[in-house]
Design brief:
- Strands 1-2 form a two-stranded antiparallel sheet.
- The protein is mainly alpha-helical.
- The chain has one domain: Farnesyl Diphosphate Synthase (Orthogonal Bundle), CATH 1.10.600.
């Protein structure tokens, strides 16, 4: 568990949560040190959920990868059974951490169980594996990307706003923006798999093409995939900009998501 959780990575999801929290933190609920601590706890739980999913995605039964975050994947560093159990352990620990957030635990658990479970990341991975090597439409690719990637990113933004005391309408708008941004993030990931090196990404490259993965590149070609990814990024950035309070903390979050949609690694 330690090998994978502390093996590097961008920590993007917890940072999105914390910086969204900071953008809204003038609200009443965000006025105490305890509130900030709950946001940090939630960010840790999110990273555990994300890392568990990477351990399992890398297994021979799924994407069969040997490199993650610039080092051996969990099942290569140890063995397949240990990797399965490490992923299981991180998922259980994540929800144990959420349970420690007191009266907020129920809502936070729903945010992340919905995003990570059958309606989200797990269901998206099932559909992603089923689509390998098969003819798929743009609508199918979008549904896979939304479930396996975008819903967890959207949950991070929504949870950050909610923890800071944003009203339900603002939380809903932030969550919608997160879906667009998550689609752009996954689109960029698919592009980088084709155009970047393993040294740049810290993981194996050109795996999607070899496995016949359902990506925008396979469905539409490289140029159209780039344009679609850029369009989703613009939509998400604009939706986020119009949903955030004005001020320096909001500007920091907006700069991060802009970088996220145009990343090179």
């Amino acid at each position: 568990m330690t090998h994978s959780l502390f093996g590097g990575g961008k920590r993007l999801r917890p940072v999105l949560l914390l910086w969204t929290y900071d953008a809204f933190r003038t609200r009443r609920r965000a006025s105490t040190r305890a509130s900030r601590y709950r946001a940090l706890q939630t960010g840790c739980a999110v990273e555990m959920i994300h890392t568990y999913s990477l351990i399992h995605d890398d297994l021979p039964a799924m994407d069969d990868d040997v490199l993650r975050r610039g080092r051996a994947t969990c099942h290569i560093a140890f063995d397949e059974a240990t990797a399965i159990l490490a992923g299981d352990g991180l998922q259980a620990l994540a929800f144990a951490v959420l349970a420690r957030t007191g009266g907020l635990a129920g809502t936070l658990t729903k945010f992340f169980a919905d995003a990570a479970g059958p309606a989200g990341m797990v269901g998206g991975q099932v559909e992603d594996l089923a689509a390998e090597g098969r003819a798929v439409t743009a609508a199918v690719v979008r549904r896979i990307h939304e479930r396996k990637t975008a819903r967890l990113i959207a949950a991070c933004l929504a949870a950050g706003a909610w923890l800071a005391g944003a009203d339900p309408r603002a939380v809903s708008r932030i969550q919608e923006a997160g879906l667009w941004l998550g689609l752009a993030f996954q689109g960029a990931d698919d592009l980088l798999d084709l155009t970047a090196s393993a040294a740049e990404l810290g993981k194996s490259v050109r795996k999607d093409e070899a496995a016949g993965k359902a990506t925008w590149v396979r469905v539409e070609g490289l140029d159209k995939a780039r344009r679609r990814t850029a369009r989703y990024g613009r939509q998400g950035l604009e939706s986020l900009r119009t949903s955030l309070p004005t001020g320096g903390r909001a500007d920091r979050l907006l700069a991060l998501v802009q970088l996220m949609c145009h990343r090179q690694r």
